[in-house]
Amino acid sequence: MSTTTTERLGTLVPEDLELTSAYRYLALGSILVLTVSYTTVLRDIAVVVGESSQVVTAVMLTLMVATILAKLVAERTALLLAGSLLIIGYGWYLAMSPGTTETVISSWDILLNDALSLLTGLSLIQITDAEVWATGTAPAPVFLSWYLAVRGRYIGSTVVGGGALLMLVLTGDAPAMTTLIGVLAATCAVGFGELDRRDGSLRQLDVLVVLVAVMLLFTLSVTVVPSGSGSPLGLDSPGSLGGLEDGEDADTIEGSLMNSPDELQVQGSVDLTPEVRFTVESNEPAHWRVGIYDTFTGDGWVRSGDTSGYDGPIEGPPGSTETIVQSYRVETQTNAMPAANQPTEVRGGITSQTQVTEHGSVLTERSLLEGDGYGIRSERPDAEPDELRATGTEYPDEIEDRHLQLPEDQPERVGELTDDVTADADNPYDSAVAIEEYLKAEKEYSLDVEKPDGNIADGFLFEMEEGYCTYYATTMVAMLRSQGIPARMATGYSTGQSVGDDEYVVRGLNSHAWVEVYFPDEGWVTFDPTPSGPRDDTRADRIEEERALGNPDVDTDDSEDEAVEDESESDEDENEEETDESEEDEQEHDEESPDADEYDDPDKGLTIPLPSRETIAMSLVLFVGLAAGAHRAGYMDRAHRTAQLHWQTAGEDPEADIERAFFRLELLLGDEYRDRDPTETYREYLATVGDVDERVERIARIHERARYGGAVTSEDADDAVRLVDELVAERSRLRGLLRR
């Protein structure tokens, strides 16, 4: 099929340009981008929980094998190979997971439930050995998608790759930008594939570019990934605070800490929630724990593992413990179910709706309403500091596997600073105390902070001067893990206001985050690196403000006449040791404390904000799309024609200036009447349109002299240009008046 240059593009494009092969390469490139979009998500998961090189290697090898087999085996055989890869990969994951083969075979109902949970918002990071799962499952879709693409089956290839991306969207693991890039790549793959198959033209390419730009504009105004705390489909998960009546929970410490039992996103500035949440009667003060998180993503936390229904006593710590008996009364509708470390028994009508996590925390399947109550029996480790120092470092494999995890891209300077902080410690307990004291001494408490970019622990240590409990606890866990000490993030509520013998009123502003450190043969022991004095002062001030405003929800009958006492005495770490030595050495500690500035990034100091790569890429796509749309709609031709009509500069050649002036006259008459047919002479055209303006005739005579050998001067050229300028100015104004 041969077309003229004008028919093909309207611009100077060679007629013999071969486009079919170019479209094929563009389609293959789009499939490759789609593949990279979902495999990047899998790689990022592996970066967080393990080693990412296995995922990258598996994907690269699969692409090479698919390229070779695309020319050697039939499509039915390829389908069988892809299915085999999926079965082998999942089998490998099961074989590498904890438990015996008999356990795996007898737990197919659990495996099926996990598969369904992934499609309704369970993040892949939460499953056991997520990096093994990612490595085992990636080859199947990569192989089949690329095999079909190489064979020219672009729609089938897009369906396979898009399905893999969709699953990651449903699990909530695919970021919005990655999803957008994948969707646009899939659209381009189908479009370029059809252009390749139908031997399309560049004019048809305009349609594809415009479609991509429209999709981008739409996704800028509509969220790509459904929002929700842990559930992309908006399903409530046990333990979330979705039932709270306060509509601004996301901007409070309580909302950020208790919004989901599955994940915790560290935020920037937050506020305090002064309303009473529950009252508790307990024979001992404690932290009322709600959530436990073991996987640090760099900018947040995720709880891995499954939950199971409560069916009797829960296993307690292995060492000596003290018994804490609690009785809770709910004051505000909530899905949170607080319990002191370590709950071993649940009492009351709520037991049938109670879930137990693999970490030993309890969740409720339904909202707890005002007036509801339940009981908890907990066994809290009560080993003395000397006993904790003597526990050693022989940790169980399952503890090391889960609670030493750090992101693969964790900055090394966090560990280097921790080495200095713990230089004088010769056991995990003293290391934990040293880190706890360092954070209390070096950082100030504040709710008004700006969340750092990148790794939270690194940002808090080296970029921030102050923060609140989430930052303190996150950083301490990261520092402990860098020393090979198992630790985890815990969230819940501090003790609250004491209003009588063994009775406490707990408000939303008591929401808190702390650290639990594992000691062999003793269990999980609480450490709290957040300075208690400034924290308690901030809480007390907020309560007094609300009381002065007459807020009826900040007190119960027992607390309204009581001053809010400092919680530091009753809320200290359960493992804290009273020593005079620490007070004597306080000044020495301040003088010799490692300075985080010594480990600062040498590139730090750039203050001019630069646009991100995503912003640049999206802006480029929008610009190209708008240009293609304008070209498709004829706006670019119209703009070019208007510029030619209104603009002319004098040159050195009078004949060229006269030719240009007459061309402008043709454009003007074409807008008013019709364009000149290429078969018409200039005189025939002027006679046909019948324009009687004398200036048109004068321009025509000057043009004839210049065109057919008559002598023309620069004065003739200036005269022709001036006359055309007058006609354009007059008739452009007239058209504007007529349009009104």
Automatic annotation (TrEMBL):
Transmembrane feature ranges: 22-42, 54-72, 78-95, 154-170, 176-195, 207-225
Bias type Acidic residues, positions: 554-601
Keyword terms, alphabetized: Hydrolase, Membrane, Protease, Transmembrane, Transmembrane helix
Ranges where the Transglutaminase-like domain occurs: 461-531
Region (Disordered): 351-389, 546-609
UniProt keyword Repeat present: no
This protein's record includes keyword Transmembrane: yes
UniProt superkingdom: Archaea
SMART domains in the cross-refs: TGc
Basic and acidic residues bias locations: 377-389
MF-aspect GO terms: peptidase activity
GO BP term (any one): proteolysis
Alphabetized PANTHER family for the sequence: PROTEIN-GLUTAMINE GAMMA-GLUTAMYLTRANSFERASE
Protein name according to UniProt: Transglutaminase-like cysteine protease
Taxonomic classification: Archaea, Methanobacteriati, Methanobacteriota, Stenosarchaea group, Halobacteria
